[in-house]
Amino acid sequence: MPRRPVAQFPRGPGRQIKRVATEALLITCPRLSPEWELSALLALMKPQTRNRIEHLRGDQRWTDDDQRVVEATVSDFAARMGLIVEAHFPDQGDFHVVLQAPADARDVSLGLVWVLSRNRPGVWWTMDRLRVRDGIFYRRRRGLKLELVVATNIHLRRGMRTTLRRLVKNDGV
Fold first, then answer.
1. Which helix (H) or strand (E) holds 26?
2. pLDDT tens for residues 130-158?
3. What are the sequence ranges of the domains in the chain?
4. For a Cys-Cys bond, which of 42, 43, 80, 96 suits 62, CB 3.0-4.6 Å?
């Protein structure tokens, strides 16, 4: 019985993707809304969807009061949860504020971005691949879809939620 030739393109397990360990998590408030950015990219790829961004504003509102609220929230959060975060407020660039948190404190950082989004309603925040607005976590739909969907697998522990509710300044959201 003749031996079969070795396949040119083996169909074995896919290539393993190695994630690079980061030293810090970045929590940012972008100057442009992530929802608007994805809609603009979709409109470039499919011009018939242009009406999704025609009447939307891409820039996010940001005032000096917002900066004071973020500074107060970060200091209150550090006092209550013990997470020390560096905050940077660049005058120019892609972000209104950049917060740098330790990479090993991901769960506590999720709580911080949740509190920030609740204290500044209507403003988008990003952490890693997550987008947060009004306390709801979003992520891009899988594949090449250019839309945001609710991230159903992001949960804050019950004890953390009760502690974080005390840090929320806006109870109307």
1. strand 24-30
2. 999 999 999 988 777 778 889 988 888 88
3. 24-165
4. 96
Tokens found for residue 166: 């005390």
| Percent of the chain residues topping a pLDDT of 90 | 29
Look up residue 67 and give its two tokens.
Answer: 């900066």
Sheet holding 125-127: strands in order across? 86-88, 95-102, 24-30, 125-127, 130-133, 136-140, 148-150
**Averaged pLDDT of the chain:** 83
Sequence-distant (6+) residues with CB within 8 A of 113 are 27, 125, 127, 130, 132
Mean pLDDT of 93-101: 93
* Residue 30: both structure tokens together: 């972008």
| Confidence tier at 16 by pLDDT (50, 70, 90) | low
* DSSP state letters, 45-114: H-GGGGGGTTT---BPP--HHHHHHHHHHHHHHHHHH----EEE--SSSSEEEEEEEETT-HHHHHHHHH
Q: Which two tokens stand for residue 19?
A: 């994630």
